[in-house]
Automatic annotation (TrEMBL):
D-isomer specific 2-hydroxyacid dehydrogenase NAD-binding domain: residues covered: 115-251
Chain's role: Catalyzes the oxidation of erythronate-4-phosphate to 3-hydroxy-2-oxo-4-phosphonooxybutanoate.
CDD domains: ErythrP_dh
GO cellular component: cytosol
Domain Erythronate-4-phosphate dehydrogenase dimerisation: 303-361
Catalytic activity: 4-phospho-D-erythronate + NAD(+) = (R)-3-hydroxy-2-oxo-4-phosphooxybutanoate + NADH + H(+)
Domain D-isomer specific 2-hydroxyacid dehydrogenase catalytic: 40-267
EC number: 1.1.1.290
Keyword Cytoplasm: yes
Name the UniProt record assigns to this protein: Erythronate-4-phosphate dehydrogenase
Residue numbers annotated as active site: 206, 232, 249
Similarity comment text for this entry: Belongs to the D-isomer specific 2-hydroxyacid dehydrogenase family. PdxB subfamily.
Species this chain originates from: Microbulbifer agarilyticus
Binding locations of NAD(+): 148, 227, 252
Amino acid sequence: MPITTPLNIVADENIPGLEQWFGDLGTIVRAPGRNLSPSQLADADILLVRSVTQVNEALLANTPVRFVGSCTIGTDHLDTHWLEQQGIAWSAAPGCNANSVVEYVFCALAALDVDWRGRNFGIVGCGNVGGSLQRKLHALNIQCKIYDPWKTDNPDSATLEEVLQQDVICLHAPLVKDGPHPSLHMIDGEALDRIRPGAVLISAGRGAVIDNHALRERDTSFTTVLDVWENEPDMDAELLERVNLGSPHIAGYSHDGKLAGTRMIREALNQALDLPVAETAQEASSASSPEQPRLTTDKSGFAAMRELLLSMYDPRQDDTRLRAAAQSAATGGESLPLAFDQLRKQYPKRLEFSHYTLPSSAQLPNLDQAVCAQLAILGLK
Ligand SMILES: NC(=O)C1=CN([C@@H]2O[C@H](COP(=O)(O)OP(=O)(O)OC[C@H]3O[C@@H](n4cnc5c(N)ncnc54)[C@H](O)[C@@H]3O)[C@@H](O)[C@H]2O)C=CC1
Ligand SMILES: O=C(O)C(=O)[C@H](O)COP(=O)(O)O
């Protein structure tokens, strides 16, 4: 159905680049996404959300909303079946921050001082995130096994049991509650017991893919990295004490990934409602990236690679902030759910590796060619 501008747009206040990408279309009202109510949508044509807004009949019934855009990869917060039944167009942003999550995986391993060379990886869920991780591992000559019940023709395809036997296990499955391959609590107590002592488990898909209670109750002999938690933002503070590295669901929070999400939703809206691309948005998208500080290290080998990666992004800072928030909540400060959301809202600007230039051998004589080649595979220019 043809649509005329100006439009009324209601958007999660945490979506960056709203003005550049949607400013030409009409009025933008920003609101906290976690508690959006139907009354805020009484005049809205377009609803723009991130993953914290449950978009369903309870929110949208009897509102004029005709397009819902989620500037995220995940779609488990959208009742897509109901939206389609109602003829409300919708889109998410597949792959928008996949590279950010892959970089998070390598930086988490660097933070834990786990040299990934010579280790075998297992990946659960081989879409944009898992597939990109698999390609990087192949390029780095690292073996991996994949469990993805919808992609059994993958050359690295394996059973979940085999994947859980690897040295580094990365969970990148979406949250699926029904159908032939649900992922809800796919990593239950029995699955956790299969993980080998000394292995590393990294969870950066959705929290409830792991049974958090089962994980908390176990005396695990493997290293655990959790970016996502069951019942966010009301995460289990006791579980945080048990994990080696924790963060408030920010694996995908590179500046690039967030802006890509906003851009992709504008493109999807253009398609759905037959709208032109905003000129200002085209200008914004071609803006060059700011000058980055020169990377430096006097180390060699993996120690050098580790130091360089952590100087671009160090997940231990996310861990420290989350633990401080949990500690403060336990001693009468701001509640952990509020603090969890605040940490995400005030997240520092994090740029992907591609913004950084590989140091030349003249600049860093201790850096051998093999490490330079690996850094290039990881995305440095
Ligand atoms: N921590 C964070 O900040 C972020 C988390 N995510 C989460 O990661 C998930 C994956 O992202 P993408 O790879 O981009 O999604 P995608 O949709 O491209 O790929 C998901 C893959 O998982 C597979 N899958 C579905 N059910 C499965 C099951 N039961 N077991 C194993 N694999 C299963 C699918 O076949 C598909 O290949 C998203 O759905 C989202 O929930 C995404 C971005 C950032
Ligand atoms: O894209 C996804 O899917 C994610 O998990 C996002 O990175 C989560 O970010 P918010 O939508 O919760 O801001």
